[in-house]
Amino acid sequence: MFPLRISTRGKMMANMNEAPGYHAIPITVAYGDGIGPEIMEATLGIINAGGASLAIETIQIGESVYHKGITAGIESSAWDSLRRTKVFLKAPITTPEGGGFKSLNVTVRKTLGLFANVRPCPAYAPFVATRHPDMDVVIIRENEEDVYGGIEHRQTDEVVQCLKLITRPGSERIIRYAFEYARRYGRHKVTCFTKDNIMKLTDGTFHKVFDEVASEYQDITSEHWIVDIGAAKLADSPEQFDVIVMPNLYGDILSDVAAQIAGSVGLAGSANIGSEVAMFEAVHGSAPRRAGQNVANPSGLLLAAVQMLVHIGQGDVAARVHNAWLKTIEDGIHTYDIYDPAVSKEKVGTREFAAAVIARLGKKPQALKAVEYPVHGSPITIKLKERPLPVKELVGIDIFVEWREAVELLGKRLEEHAGPDFQLVMITNRGTKVYPGGVAETFCVDHWRCRFQALHNGEPVAHEQVIALLSRLIAAGLPPIKTEGLFTFDGLPGFSLGQGQ
Ligand code: NAD
């Protein structure tokens, strides 16, 4: 076994362990904060004893880096290591309290294009308490898009907005990944959750791409649920699901729900996969109150490391380690967080737990299902389908204005200035049509979406005509707070028609 050391601050260290039959694969390791160093030491000790062949580079991330004034919590030299090894085993970090600090995870995911978050959530009943003993769900969450771009604006005194971006290639990539994952790991069904009954264009795109991709995987059952009822069903009867693929926000929330109802968030590991680089980590945080006491459960990070071993083509090591871990759990050797006198045999600390797993290497669980992984597997690669570019035409403009008086007055003034090229089609307030033909009961704020289209509806308009319209409105004291072009794509509207239409 190689000596496990925790790096001195800011220094890069290489550690090499080459097992027979394998070249050592370079990986980058960060020990993190709080309980991070203890669970990383336990994890590396176990996978090393299991035969992992790794050339380890250690980088510094987290609290100590934030405190140097580096707001992303990661130094520039660390990026070099990540880009070189392309594999990152990361312990949790502590994000300092107060503003001004960026989320390290979001930075790493977005910078390195880690588009897929994969979180297996199986139950380990009866050894870990759960109400859902037959649950074995894998959540595959889109990791880069949706509302996580952090594109937010205050537009009027009363209104702020957050831009939700769903892209066709981003959706196709994650959905193809989910189907490929299902095929690779012998799973039978992929479920998609969206809210496309409300967000017909954004979530609608995700659902549409899901249906298109699903049709190419006839060997795998596919289904779609509206996220609210889907989430309720997941919480109530998770055993009915297999792989679930979701846009970022729903996936963020429901992957925690799934891990929790499976038994413990503390047992879940996750993989963040990109086309070049992949990051593996526990789902839980740095648990600072438990740090340095040899009590933390290393299982979440260990199971993330198992995913890493499969990813780098050391599937037999992954299976050996995973099965030894399952055997340890079913033998009742438990850390405090899952200890239950009714089923546990021994309450152990981090180091003792690691030693118990190492002692069981080569053994398989009897009650829990043993795992198998492809021995020299390669990472899942995704190829997007080529599509012809559609014909795109500008057919109007939504102009957002700030206004505090009666909507009828706003409507009349906008109609006066619509000019020779446009007609005012409608005004909405928070998405509800209020002009023409609104009702007095509708609650309105100071933010109005005013839709202008060509006098002959559906006719294309020129950008110069839009600029002239905007100039007339500005001159009339109605400056825009933002505009959105109304485009058709191959003749189909690329904009919602507005509630009430
Ligand atoms: P946490 O996950 O660290 O802890 C929640 C609870 O679970 C605590 O009671 C803790 O003691 C317990 N716990 C967590 N992991 C455990 C383990 N392995 N073994 C035993 N018990 C465990 O969440 P928190 O307290 O909200 O956050 C603490 C810090 O972690 C914060 O600074 C937060 O920003 C950070 N965090 C980091 C990551 C990450 O690096 N990926 C993720 C989440 C939170």
What's the helix and strand layout?
Elements: E1 13-17, E2 25-30, H1 36-49, E3 54-59, H2 63-66, H3 76-85, E4 87-90, H4 104-111, E5 116-122, E6 136-142, E7 152-154, E8 160-162, H5 168-184, E9 189-194, H6 202-214, E10 221-226, H7 227-236, E11 243-246, H8 248-262, E12 269-273, E13 278-282, H9 299-311, H10 315-330, E14 333-334, E15 346-347, H11 350-359, E16 392-402, H12 407-417, E17 422-429, E18 432-435, E19 447-454, H13 463-475, E20 480-489, E21 492-493
Parallel strand pairs: 2-3, 2-4, 4-13, 6-11, 9-10, 9-11, 14-15
Antiparallel strand pairs: 1-3, 5-6, 5-12, 7-8, 12-13, 16-19, 16-20, 17-18, 17-19, 20-21
Helix pairs in contact: 1-9, 1-11, 5-6, 7-8, 9-10, 10-11
Written description of the protein model:
By secondary structure, this protein is an alpha/beta fold. The protein has 2 domains: 25-321, Isopropylmalate Dehydrogenase (3-Layer(aba) Sandwich), CATH 3.40.718; 392-493, Alpha-Beta Plaits (2-Layer Sandwich), CATH 3.30.70. It has helices spanning 36-49, 63-66, 76-85, 104-111, 168-184, 202-214, 227-236, 248-262, 299-311, 315-330, 350-359, 407-417, 463-475, and strands spanning 13-17, 25-30, 54-59, 87-90, 116-122, 136-142, 152-154, 160-162, 189-194, 221-226, 243-246, 269-273, 278-282, 333-334, 346-347, 392-402, 422-429, 432-435, 447-454, 480-489, 492-493. An 11-stranded mixed sheet has the order 1-3-2-4-13-12-5-6-11-9-10, sandwiched between helices. It has a 6-stranded antiparallel sheet with strand order 18-17-19-16-20-21. Helix 7 packs parallel to helix 8 (248-262). It is elongated and about 85 Å long. The model is unreliable at 1-14 (pLDDT under 50). Bound molecules: nicotinamide-adenine-dinucleotide.
